[in-house]
Design a protein that fits this description.
single chain; globular
Amino acid sequence: MTRSERIGELSPDQLEQFSGGAPALGIYRLGFRFKNESMQYFKSCVGEDVYSKAMNCDAGRAHHYVVARTLLDQADWEKFVWIEEHGSLKGFPG
């Protein structure tokens, strides 16, 4: 199944939830400040067409992080989360 085909099958419960304790790399926590920066990174990873399709589906509009988690591989997901928290990859431990 291609990245583009997976977009229509998304739901918020597909996302790993983080509940208490110390944050782990790549675990999404609500309240990050740099959504625009992380979405630009997401777009660079998946390309313009897939990004547009993802952000125009109901899941993408309501839960951008679910779409990103579903379409990014683990390494890119960890970078996405880092960027959303820190604004860039500066200081990324990888």
